[in-house]
């Protein structure tokens, strides 16, 4: 596409000179052909954009990327549309219609939905770029389902949508066309994936830090079953070690995002653990008997 756009722009710049140099009747065919070539270049650019959208939607790779990292398709597509934004002025003139697919409630499960009414006021080019991001997410969501671990599937979506958000933020032209409203929607999807990843990972671990099932009789402070408490900590330790063993091979390429995840997990796990210990007045007396995992 970009070579064709370069040719289009070069020929467009030469059009006034072509009119002057080939103004004679004998050169009339050249003067006539130049606009026709310009039109065919414009049509080729539109066709390539449509083919690219279909290719993103139908990209067939099903093997999950190791560790839930950023998929090569995500990098390629976002780099491609960042380059498209560099040709903004030319493409705004050439792209005159909205994407031909994506009508909401179409009933086609192989195509995502997009409400064009929400994008009122945007240029057809901007709508095409948003549509490309929509179908990229749709494809990625399908790929995420090939992970056997649900938490890893959410991590994969978190990594990839975060990458999309960062690429949009990093390109002023692309951000202007996408718009802050859609950027906020993308950011919301990334945060939802991050929340789902943490919930899928830590809900079962945190469930161990509950009082239910530890009572023998009477008040909690005087009626804690040593055997029940021992089993509770044994389960907690095993789950914590399993999470560490499994997720040690998972990837979060963005340094800032990785640190935010660590902080978020610490803010959930450590206070819950300390609160659990604080509700057990007898814990210090039992520490030698019970394998208590030191958290935080």
UniProtKB/TrEMBL annotation:
Gene3D superfamilies: Exocyst complex component Exo70. Signal peptide: none annotated. It holds the Pfam family Exo70_C. One of its GO terms (biological process) is exocytosis. Residues 1-281 form the Exocyst complex subunit Exo70 C-terminal domain. The keyword Protein transport applies. GO terms for molecular function: phosphatidylinositol-4,5-bisphosphate binding. Keywords: Exocytosis, Protein transport, Transport. One of its GO terms (cellular component) is exocyst. It comes from the Eukaryota. Component of the exocyst complex. Belongs to the EXO70 family. This is Exocyst subunit Exo70 family protein. It comes from Hevea brasiliensis. The lineage of its organism: Eukaryota, Viridiplantae, Streptophyta, Embryophyta, Tracheophyta.
